[in-house]
Write a structure and sequence with these properties.
heterodimer; A: about 250 residues; alpha+beta; 5-stranded mixed sheet; 5-stranded antiparallel sheet; 10 strands; B: mainly alpha; Fumarate Reductase Cytochrome B subunit; two-stranded antiparallel sheet; two-stranded antiparallel ribbon; 10 helices; elongated
Chain lengths: ~250, ~250
C-alpha cells in the first residue's frame, strides 16, 4: 500500500490546514488566547533575567555604515516644517500628566543635561538590524526633576508625525523600561544632530525593545496610570491598528 | 494490518508518542508562521547587523500564501502564532530531552552501540537504505544507525539550534544573556542560522515521511499512536539477508 504524495495534494492539504488555522484565528477568544503569549514572554523575561540588564554596546567600528530610517521619514506638516526651519529653537518637549512639576524643555536645555552615549543595535520587528551611536539625556533624572507620581504606571510618548496620514504616532513604556539607564531621549546619531529621517529633533531610545517602541519626533511625554482612553487604548500606534505586541522585548 | 503470527512489540512509550504529535503541530505552526515573518524582510545577512544597505547573502521573493500563516500577509499575526507556539515547543523539547536522557530512552534506543559507528557498518546501512532493504524481524525492533543519527541530529542539534537562534533575535533576551547572540556571531547571523536550521528540519521531515511511507505507513503511524509495532516478517527472498543483520 502506498500513498501518492503529489505536489498538488501537498499544496491542497497545506492550504486546507492553513485555512483552518486562519479560521481559528478569526475567532475572538482564540485570538485573545494567542495574544496572551505577549504576557507570558514579558513575565518570563522579567522573572528569569535581570530587570536592570544593559543591552549590549558595541565599538565604533562595529557600526552600520549607513543607519536605516524606517516609519515616518518626514512628518511634513506645516507645524513641523516651521520648527525645522528654525533649527528647532522654538520646539519644546512637554512633560506632564501625573507629575508634580510639569516641564517644558528646549533642545538647548536637553543638551546641557548630563548625557549618555551608547552604541547599540536597533532591531526592527521586520527582522533587520542597524548599529548606531546615540547621544541623549537619560530619561530617569528628567522624570525625577518633573516629580513623577508614584501612582504613574506608564509613560506615553506623543509624536509630531501623523503616521501615513492616518493618526498621530505614539508609544508607551512601563516604568521598568522608562527608568532603565539606557533609556535616553536622543538628539544625536553618529555624532551629528539627529536627522529628520531618524526623528529630529528628539527620539526615544529603549534599547531592550524592538524599533517601533523608539518613538521619533517627540513632542510630549505624559505620565499616566492606565493606557485605557489614550488613542486606541492599547499603548501605541501599531498596537492599536495592527495588533502589534505592546511589550516589544520579544 | 497485522498478519497472523507476526510478533508485535511495544515500541514507542507514551512520552515519545505525546511529544511526537505535540512537536508535529508546533513545527507546522512555527514553520508556516516563520515564513510569514520572513516575508517582512526576505533578506539574510551575516554578522551583528544587516539592513537594506548592507550586503545580503540571500535575497528571496516573498513566500506564497499557501505556505505562510496567516495566508494573507500579516507580520503581527505571524508573530502571534510563532511566539505563542515557540514556548510550548521549547519546553516540550526540554522535558522530552530530560526524559530521554534520565529515563533511559536515549541509552536504550538512541545511543550508538559498539561497532555501529564503524565505517563498514554505516556503509552497509547506507547501501541497505538505498536498496530500500529495511530490517525485518528482531532487527526491526531497534533503530538502525542512520535512523539514530537522524533522530539524534534533530533532537540534540537542529531543534535546540532553532530555539537558541530564536531567542537570540529577542532584544530583551539579548540584553540579559549577551552570549545568545555572541555564540552565533551576531543577531543577523542568528537569524540566518534560524532560517537554515528551519529548512534542515524540513529536509528531515521529508526524509522521515518518505521512510515512513516506504517502511509501511499504517504500521508506522499506528505504532506512533498506540505504541505497538508489528515487526515486519522477513520476505522469502530476504531470509538470508536478514539472517546477516542479526
Amino acid at each position: 500500500m502506498s500513498f501518492i504524495l503529489s505536489r498538488r495534494s501537498i499544496i491542497l492539504g497545506g492550504t486546507a490546514l492553513l485555512a483552518g488555522c486562519d479560521k481559528l484565528a478569526a475567532n475572538k477568544s482564540f485570538r485573545e488566547t494567542l495574544f496572551t503569549a505577549e504576557n507570558f514572554h514579558r513575565w518570563a523575561q522579567r522573572a528569569i533575567t535581570n530587570r536592570e540588564a544593559l543591552a549590549q554596546e558595541y565599538r565604533p567600528d562595529q557600526r552600520s555604515w549607513k543607519f536605516r530610517a524606517n516609519g515616518t521619514r518626514n512628518p511634513d506638516s506645516e507645524a513641523y516644517k516651521a520648527l525645522w526651519r528654525e533649527d528647532f529653537v522654538n520646539w519644546r518637549l512637554k512633560i506632564d500628566g501625573m507629575v508634580s512639576r510639569p516641564l517644558s524643555l528646549s533642545l538647548a536645555q536637553l543638551r546641557q543635561m548630563p548625557a549618555r552615549e551608547q552604541i547599540t543595535r536597533h532591531d526592527c520587528v521586520e527582522g533587520w538590524s542597524a548599529i548606531g551611536k546615540w547621544r541623549g539625556a537619560p530619561l530617569k533624572p528628567i522624570l525625577e526633576a518633573a516629580g513623577l507620581s508614584t501612582n504613574a504606571r506608564y509613560l506615553v510618548f506623543h509624536c509630531a508625525d501623523i503616521y501615513g496620514g492616518i493618526a498621530p504616532y505614539y508609544e508607551s513604556l512601563d516604568m521598568i523600561d522608562a527608568l532603565h539607564p539606557q533609556t535616553i531621549l536622543a538628539y544625536a546619531l553618529n555624532d551629528r544632530p539627529l536627522p529628520v529621517a531618524n526623528g529630529a529633533p528628539l527620539r526615544l531610545r529603549v534599547e531592550r525593545q524592538l524599533g517601533y517602541k523608539h518613538a521619533k519626533y517627540l513632542m510630549r511625554i505624559e505620565a499616566v496610570s492606565s493606557l485605557a482612553g489614550i488613542y486606541g487604548g492599547r499603548g501605541g500606534f501599531w498596537e492599536d491598528r495592527a495588533d502589534y505586541d505592546w511589550y516589544a522585548g520579544i | 494490518m497485522a498478519r497472523n503470527g507476526d510478533p508485535i512489540v511495544y515500541r514507542h512509550r507514551f512520552a515519545t508518542r505525546l511529544w511526537h504529535w505535540v512537536n508535529v503541530i508546533c513545527l507546522y505552526v512555527l514553520f508556516t508562521s516563520g515564513l510569514g515573518i520572513f516575508n517582512a524582510h526576505p533578506r539574510l545577512y551575516w554578522g551583528q547587523y544587516g539592513a537594506n544597505y548592507d550586503h545580503a547573502w540571500l535575497v528571496l521573493p516573498r513566500w506564497p500564501g499557501w505556505l505562510t500563516l496567516p495566508e494573507s500577509y500579516s507580520l503581527a499575526m505571524s508573530r502571534h502564532w510563532h511566539l505563542f507556539t515557540a514556548p510550548i515547543f521549547a519546553f516540550a523539547l526540554l522535558l522530552y530531552m530530560l526524559w530521554s536522557v534520565f529515563g533511559g530512552h536515549f541509552r536504550r534506543d538512541l545511543a550508538f552501540r559498539k561497532g555501529e559507528l564503524a565505517p563498514s557498518h554505516i556503509w552497509q546501512d547506507i547501501k541497505d537504505h538505498a536498496r530500500l532493504k529495511f530490517p525485518t524481524g528482531q532487527a526491526a525492533a531497534r533503530y538502525n544507525v542512520l535512523q539514530k543519527g537522524a533522530y539524534n541530529k534533530l533532537l540534540f542539534l537542529l531543534l535546540p539550534v532553532l530555539i537558541l537562534t530564536g531567542l537570540a533575535m529577542s532584544p530583551g533576551m539579548d540584553a540579559a544573556w549577551p552570549w545568545l547572540t555572541q555564540i552565533w556571531g551576531g543577531r543577523q547571523s542568528a537569524r540566518s542560522i534560524h532560517f537554515i536550521a528551519a529548512w534542515a528540519t524540513v529536509a528531515f521531515f521529508l526524509a522521515h515521511i518518505i521512510m515512513v511511507v516506504l517502511a509501511g505507513p499504517l504500521n508506522e503511524v499506528r505504532s506512533m499512536l498506540t505504541g505497538w509495532y508489528r515487526l515486519p516478517r522477513a520476505r522469502r527472498n530476504e531470509v538470508e539477508a536478514s539472517g546477516e543483520n542479526q
